[in-house]
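Researcher: Quick test of sequence recovery. Tokens follow.
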């Protein structure tokens, strides 16, 4: 059976979360069910789990569960992934949490995600018109509006994960080269380029915040109380602007990343180039984007990235 760290998870629920025995047993049941799914997928250790495999699990369970039961499953999975992340047992923690939060059942018991002819779940993609509406939804006359637009534009243009945008510091930005530096450890940084739309939004935010930042090592994106923005605050912000933009489904960080990837490949970038742009180790996500990887291999380059980042059709 797949290694899912069941006993440690139960102890986490009991000792660290303070849950009662009935809730611990419910968590154990859902973790065991998930372990059975991992076995069926040939995944022997939870550390090997990819977001695409987890999305297929949600798709599968949504078809057989009622809404209340499915919501309980989602709650248990959030706790399970928090436990795994606290023990450094998984990668892609943000993607797992975002998939859990964004996944919803419709009245037929199917997920809102599209599926290909092979039945595999595909990413939910925003088109250019929807992205423009989303980026223009924040009020550019307010602190939160200017900040929100800068965050939305940057997340899409640099394909940032939630933890990456929330951990950015002022010193991580180079607006002359259109690059932000992502800190994976005290000794490791990764460059993430972004486009001119994102640069202009960041310039507006930094101009507004001039004099507020006291050091270049200050956290870049702050809430209205002057504290670093939280993951929940980010999720609420994106969800609110998605609704205001008239988008008929929940918008998430992973949706913006998937949309950027899809637009790159539409404009000629191949799967490997796109994987690198998203900070992924491979290109297995290509089928999830509804794109035949390799058909345009080698024909990408700067033009593909420029057109995607500037929302050029």
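Model:
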């Amino acid at each position: 059976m797949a290694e899912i760290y069941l006993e440690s998870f139960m102890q986490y629920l009991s000792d660290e979360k303070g849950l009662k025995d009935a809730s611990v047993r419910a968590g154990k049941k859902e973790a065991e069910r998930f372990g059975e799914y991992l076995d069926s997928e040939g995944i022997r250790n939870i550390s090997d789990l990819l977001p695409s495999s987890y999305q297929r699990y949600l798709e599968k369970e949504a078809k057989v569960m009622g809404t209340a039961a499915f919501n309980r499953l989602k709650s248990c999975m959030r706790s399970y992934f928090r436990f795994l992340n606290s023990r450094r047992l998984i990668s892609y923690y943000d993607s797992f949490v975002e998939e859990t939060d964004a996944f919803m059942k419709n009245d037929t018991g199917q997920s809102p995600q599209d599926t290909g002819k092979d039945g595999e779940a595909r990413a939910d993609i925003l088109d250019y018109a929807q992205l423009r509406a989303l980026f223009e939804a924040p009020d550019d006359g307010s602190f939160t509006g200017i900040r929100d637009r800068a965050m939305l534009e940057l997340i899409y243009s640099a394909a940032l994960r939630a933890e990456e945008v929330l951990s950015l510091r002022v010193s991580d930005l180079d607006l002359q080269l259109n690059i932000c530096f992502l800190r994976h450890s005290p000794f490791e940084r990764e460059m993430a380029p972004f486009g001119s739309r994102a640069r202009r939004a960041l310039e507006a935010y930094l101009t507004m915040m001039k004099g507020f930042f006291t050091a270049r090592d200050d956290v870049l994106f702050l809430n209205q109380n002057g504290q670093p923005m939280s993951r929940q605050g980010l999720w609420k912000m994106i969800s609110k602007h998605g609704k205001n933009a008239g988008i008929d489904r929940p918008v998430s960080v992973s949706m913006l990343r998937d949309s950027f990837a899809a637009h790159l490949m539409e404009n000629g970038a191949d799967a490997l180039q796109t994987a690198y742009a998203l900070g992924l180790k491979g290109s297995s996500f290509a089928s999830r984007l509804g794109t035949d990887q390799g058909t345009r291999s080698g024909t990408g380059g700067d033009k593909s990235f420029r057109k995607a980042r500037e929302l050029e059709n």
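The longest strand covers residues 179-185.
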